[in-house]
Amino acid sequence: ELPADKRSAFLDRECGDDKTLRAEVESLLAAGSEAVNFISDPIAGKFIPDFAEHAQTMSPGNTLGHYVIERAIGFGGMGEVYLATDTKLGRCVALKTLPPSFASDPNFLRRFSNEAQAAANLNHPNVATIYSVEDFDGLQFITMEYVDGQTLDHLTPDGGLEINQFLEWFDPIADALAHAHEKGIIHRDIKPSNIMITSEGVPKILDFGLAQIEQSIAGATPANDI
Predict the structure, then answer these.
(1) Active site residue 5
(2) Whole-structure pTM value
């Protein structure tokens, strides 16, 4: 938090003769200055206004193959999400679309397939299950488990979670991430808005669009090269 011209004197005083500590702190300061607004600016931030123009392009009753749109759930950096009914299996699904106008963009297409590929390689009760990847009349979409609940950012009070509640939710979240890492998948976008708490109090990790996938899993196409 100190101005740059006062940091050297501060480090002289606090680090003393510990050259290793001094070098480590200076390297962290240098990395921080290079990062600029990496944390505060979303990776897809510059695209969000474009997506906003395409928000809720489908209405209740519209169909995509054997899926009937019930209502819009939301939209964001990767597309639109709807609650839909799978008329073949008689179940509710979350249907995530990639608007056709973005399907030709290799970055968006890579992120879209990345999300499906990463989550499909995981079998864990605290990761939202991917059902299918489909293409209907040029509209690409993913169907996945519909998680009825609220995201963690909406459930966390201003003063933070009570410790027992924190442990009840974060122990399975950590276990799910460990399972993903064992499978060679790193989420890379864990944040409260990507964690859904079901109406039964079960946490579910969502949105693997930025996941890094080991080459042995990704195959010939480097889906993690974003």
Answers:
(1) no
(2) 0.66
